[in-house]
């Protein structure tokens, strides 16, 4: 069943005339997000490395969020998720979001335990 692809991005804010223009538009968007990540990684602003949120530096949170934005947008446009039914989109999008949140939770607690072992010099649990 052939149908036309939607030629707009950002929920219709930018509209393109052809698929080629749309691909270039998405490339520019992903390049900008990547450039922001690289710039923050090189400069490492003190405001973002000195402040913590939920036990992790703000800079790390920004990296995680921007990486998820890029992954979501690649799946949304290049894997044509926008053309699928709502239930399939939700199953594909929400499952990794919950798994990434769970992974972050586990990593933060394990890292905090290892930090306390090195800081205090003793092991709380003997495995």
Name some characteristics of this structure.
mainly alpha; 127 residues; two-stranded antiparallel sheet; 4 strands
Any overview of this molecule?
- The protein is 68% helix and 6% strand.
- It has four helices and four strands, in the order ββααββαα.
- The chain has helices at residues 19-43, 46-50, 58-78, 86-120, and strands at residues 8-9, 14-15, 52-53, 56-57.
- The chain is elongated, with a radius of gyration of 20 Å.
Distance between the termini: 59 Å
Total beta strands: 4
Our count of helices gives: 4
Rg, rounded, reads: 20 Å
Gross morphology? elongated
How much of the polypeptide forms β-strand, as a percent range? 5-15%
Element layout with pairings:
Blueprint lengths: L7 E2 L4 E2 L3 H25 L2 H5 L1 E2 L2 E2 H21 L7 H35 L7
Helix pairs in contact: 1-3
Offer a quick outline of the entry.
By secondary structure, this protein is mainly α. It has 4 helices and 4 strands; from the N terminus they run E-E-H-H-E-E-H-H. Strands 1-2 form a two-stranded antiparallel ribbon. A two-stranded antiparallel sheet has the order 3-4.
């Amino acid at each position: 069943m052939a149908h036309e692809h939607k030629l707009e991005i950002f929920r219709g804010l930018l509209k393109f005339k052809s698929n080629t223009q749309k691909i270039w538009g998405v490339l520019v968007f992903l390049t900008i997000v990547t450039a922001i990540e690289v710039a923050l990684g090189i400069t490492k602003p003190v405001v973002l490395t000195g402040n913590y949120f939920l036990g992790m530096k703000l800079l790390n949170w920004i990296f995680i969020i921007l990486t998820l934005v890029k992954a979501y947008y690649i799946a949304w446009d290049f894997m044509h998720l926008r053309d699928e039914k709502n239930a399939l989109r939700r199953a594909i999008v929400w499952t990794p979001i919950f798994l990434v949140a769970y992974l972050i939770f586990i990593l933060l607690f394990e890292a905090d335990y290892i930090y306390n072992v090195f800081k205090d010099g003793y092991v709380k649990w003997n495995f």
